[in-house]
Amino acid sequence: MSFTRDDVEQILAEIARFATDRIAAATARPEAALSPRALDELTQEAAELGLLTSSDAEEGFGLWSSADAAEGMALNIGLLQILGQANAGIAYHWHRLAIASVVARRLGVGLSEGALFIPTGHFGLAHGGLAKYLQTGATSAEEENAVSDWFDRREKSVIAFGPETWRQVLWPVWSGAGIAWRTDPRDMLDVTVRTKAHGFDELAAFEIRRGANSDDDGIITTEDSAQIYLRALKMDAIGLMAVAAGAARHTQSYAENYVAIRKQGGQLIGRHPAVQLAIGEIESACALAEGVLRKFERPIDDIDLGDVVASRIMLHPALRHAANQSMQSHGGIGYMRDTGPEKILRDENMLSMALGGMRAGALFVAAWRNAKA
Questions:
Q1: Which of these, 19, 23, 65, 152, could form a disulfide with 59 (CB 3.0-4.6 Å)?
Q2: Residue 108 φ/ψ region, left for φ over 0, alpha for ψ in the -120 to 50 degree band, beta for the rest
Q3: For 150-175, what is each residue's pLDDT tens digit?
Q4: Mean pLDDT of 65-70
């Protein structure tokens, strides 16, 4: 589906109203986690609004439904910034849910409404063999063994975050000498509910692996399985940055509103140089995020995965620092969960690790560049 820039602005304005009236209102108390029922209700509202589309629906203006044109990418990035500003945990969940629908549509398979998308292996994104394979379609025997182990869904578990009601996973696997896909229902998986994660208070944490009795059939392979995975990785990394950028704007408003009313020694703390420095650094990080994301407002196939991962390595630490500065600007109460900035800092940490940590990303970028040379 094609969009004009005017279409994008109108859709973003409509979603901004929904984000303010429903998401932000439902999560206005940062110390009180959203209930599973309330999350499911919001997700259903998002689907009815067209923000989320099922795997068998026609492409529309929903998240990641259009990524083949600059306007579509501007829409995706803008939507996730708006959602991230309202609530980063919900935005993360809907972002991954949307990618699952897009991937399933490309594969020609149906998904249940409660599907988790798990794009990585059992740790990070560090394997040079994966970078080489995505660049050239080939791996050495040693690299293939490493990537095969990384994608091992039976012996190696992964940690995933989602609503308590999820019913299925969609994830890439290694089959033969290349990437394929599987959809596995929850009742055929070994699932352990983990303690609450560091952030994403709205979501539950699960340790997941294929069950001993799960069917070895069911591999989904198409001629462009690897290309689908490459596109999904780019969508995921760009989306995580967009959500993090939105969350940073949220914590910026916390800081600016607080320093405008809090006094110390009869003077507003916003007049103190140290506080002004913190506010300036928050704005600098937000401006950096806008510039980084703007360069990805072009067709997804024209975007280089190495550039995307490299951008994450630069951007996420800056946004984490901004969240920390917002918390520090509040003084001691910034550490209290009912204030707000503390939660956003935890969510920023989670977003930075969702596709592998920064060191893992740097190793991937180095391998990507070597394979590209």
A1: 65
A2: left
A3: 999 999 999 999 999 999 999 999 98
A4: 93
Task: Say if strands 263-264 and 178-185 run parallel, antiparallel, or are unpaired.
Answer: unpaired
Strands (E), the chain: 115-117, 158-162, 168-175, 178-185, 189-193, 204-210, 263-264, 267-268
Give dist(CA 276, CA 95) in Å, integer: 34
Distances (CA, A) of 302 to 27, 175, 234, 253, 288: 37, 27, 11, 34, 22
| Between 331 and 217, residue with greater pLDDT | 331
> For residues 316, 321, 325 and 326, what is the CA-based torsion angle, rounded to 10 degrees?
10
Cβ-based neighbour number of residue 281 at 10 Å:
16
Which positions ≥6 away from 257 have C-beta within 8 Å? none
Confidence of residue 1 (pLDDT cuts 50, 70, 90): low
Q: Which residue has the tokens 């995020």?
A: 289
Structure tokens at 71: 């306007």
Average predicted confidence (pLDDT) for the chain: 92
Dump pLDDT digits (tens) for 229-288: 999 999 999 999 999 999 999 999 999 999 999 998 889 999 999 999 999 999 999 999
* Cβ neighbour number for residue 239 with a 10 Å cutoff: 29
Would you say 235 and 307 are in contact if contact means Cβ atoms under 8 Å apart?
no
Nearest CA among 184, 181, 183, 182 for reference residue 228: 181
Instruction: Round to whole Å and give the CA distance between 175 and 157.
Output: 18
Residue type, position 363, single letter: L
| Angle in degrees, CA 160, 161, 167, rounded to 5 | 85
- Give kind and range of the element (H or E) at residue 194: none
The SS3 of residue 121 is: coil
- The amino acid at residue 223 is E
Q: How many helices and strands (H and E) does the chain possess?
A: 12, 8
| Helix, strand and coil percent figures for the chain, each rounded to 5 | 60, 10, 30
Q: Determine the Cα angle at 344 with ends 191 and 41, to 5°.
A: 55
Whole-angstrom distance, CA of residue 35 vs CA of residue 201: 10
pLDDT in tens, 110-152: 888 789 999 998 877 767 889 999 988 888 888 888 899 999 9
The dihedrals phi and psi of 31, each to the nearest 5 degrees, come to -85, -10
Q: What stretches of 63-152 adopt beta strand conformation (E)?
A: 115-117
